[in-house]
């Protein structure tokens, strides 16, 4: 009984699950390369204040008119979104949206 109202056992169990369970933070969420590419397109378009269709995914990000300060901000947001930390600037090894998203994304190909 809760506040004078009878509650079923399944409702009590569900309430307990909501209050006692915590998200698994041991593994970062797995994102596909397509999800990462879309996220990067959205962020870059937002920073450049342009339509995302104007962004070339296979061209270097720095060649598309964004300055280094915005890149630092986007990389920091990407780290937070992916739940990882880069040991160095990922754009040095993967300068385009396409290359970066493919390197970070889960394998999209069927096994």
TrEMBL record:
<dbReference type="Pfam" id="PF00550">
    <property type="entry name" value="PP-binding"/>
</dbReference>
<protein>
    <submittedName>
        <fullName>Phosphopantetheine attachment site</fullName>
    </submittedName>
</protein>
<feature type="domain" description="Carrier">
    <location>
        <begin position="31"/>
        <end position="108"/>
    </location>
</feature>
<dbReference type="InterPro" id="IPR009081">
    <property type="entry name" value="PP-bd_ACP"/>
</dbReference>
<dbReference type="InterPro" id="IPR036736">
    <property type="entry name" value="ACP-like_sf"/>
</dbReference>
<feature type="compositionally biased region" description="Polar residues">
    <location>
        <begin position="7"/>
        <end position="18"/>
    </location>
</feature>
<feature type="compositionally biased region" description="Low complexity">
    <location>
        <begin position="19"/>
        <end position="33"/>
    </location>
</feature>
<feature type="region of interest" description="Disordered">
    <location>
        <begin position="1"/>
        <end position="33"/>
    </location>
</feature>
């Amino acid at each position: 009984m809760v506040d004078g109202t009878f509650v079923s056992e399944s409702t009590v169990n569900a309430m307990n699950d909501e209050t006692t369970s915590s998200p698994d933070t041991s593994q970062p969420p797995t994102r596909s390369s397509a999800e990462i590419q879309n996220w990067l397109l959205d962020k870059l378009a937002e920073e450049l204040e342009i339509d995302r269709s104007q962004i070339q995914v296979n061209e270097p990000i720095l060649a598309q008119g964004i300055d280094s300060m915005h890149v630092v901000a986007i990389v920091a947001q990407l780290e937070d979104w992916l739940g990882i930390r880069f040991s160095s600037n990922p754009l040095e090894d993967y300068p385009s949206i396409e290359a970066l998203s493919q390197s970070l994304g889960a394998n999209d190909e069927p096994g």
